[in-house]
Design a protein that fits this description.
alpha+beta, globular, 4 helices, about 35% helix, four-stranded antiparallel sheet
């Protein structure tokens, strides 16, 4: 089992475009033995410390194998909507790990 944590930073004013991409991408996760475990949109009141700006959203996802994650990234349906991701996400930080 691998775990993916993603910090997502949105282009100002592109939140709706981002949500359109997520509406397509999130259901595809389960096609590849993946599960969305947590999706949060942290408000400023919930952040105790941040060296830089807070992310718009934080996702925690798990996949049975690294191969499953790789196949998810190559999914043809998801690829059709990558232009929405590219338009709306300014940057993201993806952290991959394993449960201890």
């Amino acid at each position: 089992m691998i775990y993916i944590t993603q910090l997502i930073y949105i282009q100002q004013g592109k939140e709706q475009v981002f949500h359109e991409f997520e509406d397509v991408a999130i259901p595809i996760i389960s096609k590849y033995n993946g599960r969305l475990l947590l999706r949060i949109r942290p408000g400023t009141e919930s952040i105790i410390y941040s060296k830089d700006e807070a992310p718009y959203e934080v996702h925690l996802i798990c996949f049975d194998t690294e191969g499953d994650f790789g196949r998810f990234k190559l999914d043809e349906e998801r690829k059709k909507f990558l232009h929405l991701k590219e338009e709306s996400i300014r940057s993201s930080l993806l952290i991959q790990g394993h449960a201890l």
